Amino acid sequence: IAAGAAMAWEIAAAEDRVVADVVLNKPLMDAYTYLVPENLRDEIAPGRRVRVPFGRGPRGGRSETGFVVAVRPVEEYANERGSKPERLKTIDRVLDEAPLVDAKMLELSRWIAEYYLCGWGQVLSSVVPAGVKRNAGTRELVFYRPTETGRAALDAGSLTKKQRAAMAAIIDAGEPVRADYVASKADCGVGVVTSLKHKGFAEQVRKRTDVTEFDDVAIEPWEELVATDEQQAALDTILAALRGQEYATFLLHGVTGSGKTEVYIRAIKEVVEYGRQAIVLVPEIALTPQTIRRFRQRFERVAVLHSHLSDAERSKHWRDIAAGRVEVVVGARSAIFAPCQHLGLVIIDEEHESTFKQDSVPRYHAREVAEKRCREAGVPLILGSATPTLESWHAAQEGRYRLLSLLRRVGKLPLPPVVTVDVRNDPQVRKGRAIGRQLSNAVKAAIEDGGQVILFLNLRGFSPAVWCRACGASLMCPDCDVSLTWHRDKGRAVCHSCAHEQTVPRACPGCGAHELKYVGVGTQKLEEEVKQVFPDATIARMDSDSMRKPGSHDEVLTRFRHSEIDILLGTQMIAKGLDFPNVTLVGVVDADTQLHQPDPRAGERTFQLIAQVAGRTGRSSRGGRVYVQSSNPAEPAIRRAAGHDYLGFVADELRDRWDMSYPPYRRLCRVILRGPDEAAVKRRANEMANALSAAAKSRNLPVQILGPAPCAVARLQKNWRFHFQLSAENPADVRSLWRTVEPEFPTGGDVDFVVDMDPLNM
Ligand code: ADP
Ligand code: ZN
User: Fold this and answer.
1) What is the protein's quaternary organization (predicted)?
2) Ligand minimally distant from the alpha carbon of residue 286
3) How far apart are CA 560 and CA 544, in angstroms?
4) How many A from CA of 280 to the centre of ligand 1?
């Protein structure tokens, strides 16, 4: 058999054939090589998808879809060490009419797979939207054009009157036309056009066309602003890089209200004038009509990519961007993959937001991908924030990023004074209220004065725990190591980590006592309290429970803008980006919610959240104040945030990170193992960690293994979880170590694992 196969191979090779390297949607870095049959030679191209046999047997066990990443002569493959050309399988079919990704995107996706330790094919299938793969929103339509016989027949006068009129209409159009167009021009039925086709006087062409239409949004009037000195200085530096067409990452550190968006817009103006495109990434939650309007007012062709788009809309935007019909792409994380052919600039606003990291495969961070993409394209990247991540700040200190600062608010407005309230001694809080005396007086005064109030609390639901007074245990989710939150509107206790909901039993499941009690305050209870204390105020609550309906988020913000709401309370949904001049008071109801989480970033998150939510006030000459309630007022993150002291905070925090060997000084890679059997998960975690330690030692790689240990949430959705970390100064060492050990531990089976490079959660 082997001899026969080898002979068949030689015949094939003699015909000067090509092979294609194909990556499948699997956690593998390597491509599989397939023989390209003669009839597919013209169609095959990198970036197109193909159906290929995969698995055992000459025809493969199953059929799979993959992306072609290279097409090359068969000899080249045959000369590779260890290649078995006679064993090559053949591609079944080529999908897609044109490549879905270009060479640059292939390269970028390969880099992502290497960096984030996942499969190249996994990255590609995730970055190309489903609608684009299905060609959603397009349809193949039939058009007609004249044949030579048809033209001759018209000249010879051998056609009927109706045919003559139809033929003339087809010829006059000068391009292939639809039958109904001909029918209306020539005042005949569409049957006449088909009869022309049957006689060979006209022929059909098929073309794929967009069927979705979008309303053009009218550009609203816009008053040109005079840039502040700080804005101008930042802009001049960015423009110099733009004009030099050089890669550079700028860290635009601008306090809240310093006018960062105006800097972005002016930089984009320059790019668009050169005929290039800009990508602006914002957190999904900031994709409000207000944000979008700021861009639509200033640019004609803006594509907004948000998660509510239909497949057809998304795929239409994708084609418009690829064809250069779009100047500015505004979108959440995945917009970094927008197929701009003439990229001129990338901007990431609120770069500190954790939503820029994807928490499923590929677990990429948009900032890292943007850096890579901009470097390859030779264009600048701007990262903007009032509270940059320690990673970015450190990069700026080291000179890898260029720091641009906007230290003052626009219009000489001061940052709002912040009062930290120690609630441990507050009489109202001791009675179980969420809002202490000082904050409550301040709310009263602000409303009487005609101002508006934002109250921030990062816990949704009514009460964050159902607690037994007798034994001290909380009601837990049966599937997760998470205590249940009481949702009074549903009359049920809910797990915020999985879909579990249940009624609350009369007796404690642990000790049987009838002493269960709802403890703590979530946004629903806060709403009730605020209604009681301020019965005349109009109140709106904004959290993921109250904002289920699409559009409700925008609706509430519009009412708030028009001062139809006095008090807006909610979770982090209201902490960010909002620019409402009439907000004269911000209350942080509980600054401690994040503080005690077992995570090295707990302090950073607390600082960011307080600084961001404080930034929602004092945005006009009406001024504004901030009250921060805490039981740990001396905690550095809270103290520094109250003093608007970002520089002081990062100085402290960087020192701590250095002492603890945490990022940004080390790079971490977290491996999480999970499965239904606790002992098996633990065993596998130990095996993997030991294998990695041994390999690090034998290969002399400076990588430390930290752990394994149970995860902070030790059980999630019925699965036990253990984790360990790989820590190194150079991420390349982590990759190299992981890739050598990985093949020993195939995925699947009863213990599964995920690999998270540069994890944001511990
Ligand atoms: P940031 O994003 O830095 O918090 P914004 O970009 O939201 O700040 O700007 C705050 C407000 O200041 C916005 O209402 C904006 O229109 C306004 N603004 C920005 N730059 C100027 C300027 N040069 N002159 C006047 N107003 C400005
Ligand atoms: Zn659960």
Assistant:
1) Component of the replication restart primosome.
2) 1
3) 18
4) 17
- The per-residue pLDDT for range 257-268, each reduced to its tens digit, is 999 999 999 999
Centre of ligand 2 from the C-alpha of residue 674, in Å: 15
Query: CA 126 → CA 83, 97, 361, 562, distances in Å?
Result: 30, 19, 8, 41
Which tokens in the block code for residue 419? 């009062």
pTM of the model: 0.88
Please, where are the H alpha helices in 585-677?
A: 602-614, 636-642, 646-660
State the CB neighbour count (10 A cutoff) for residue 75: 13
Among the bound ligands, the one closest to the CA of 476: 2
Instruction: Output the 3-class SS for 378-406.
Output: CCCEEEEECCCCHHHHHHHHHCCEEEEEE
Q: Which of 191, 207, 205 is nearest to 144 (CA)?
A: 205
One DSSP character per residue, 149-214 reads: HHHHHHHHT-S-HHHHHHHHHHHHH-S-B-HHHHHHHHTS-HHHHHHHHHTTSEEEEEEEEE----
Q: Which of 225, 255, 576 to mutate to test the pocket of ligand 1 (most atoms within 8 A of CB)?
A: 225
What residues form DSSP beta bridges with 628? 420, 588
CB 91 within 8 A of CB 52: yes
Q: Is the pLDDT of residue 406 over 50?
A: yes
CA 605, 610, 616, 617: dihedral to nearest 10 degrees? -170
Ligand 1 centre from 237 Cα, in Å?
Answer: 19
Q: Residue 244 corresponds to which amino acid? A: G
Which residues line ligand 1 at a C-beta cut-off of 6 Å? 225-228, 231, 254, 256-262, 410, 579
Which residue puts its alpha carbon closest to atom 24 of ligand 1? Answer: 225
The token pair at 507 is 């007796």
13 CB contacts (<8 Å, ≥6 apart)?
Answer: 74, 75, 78, 85
Report which of 115, 312, 286, 109 is spatially closest to residue 209, judged by C-alpha positions: 312
pLDDT per position as a tens digit, 726-743: 999 999 999 999 999 988
Residue 710's SS3 state is strand
Alpha-carbon span 195 to 167, nearest angstrom = 11
User: Which stretches of 615-710 are DSSP H helices?
Assistant: 636-642, 646-660, 678-699
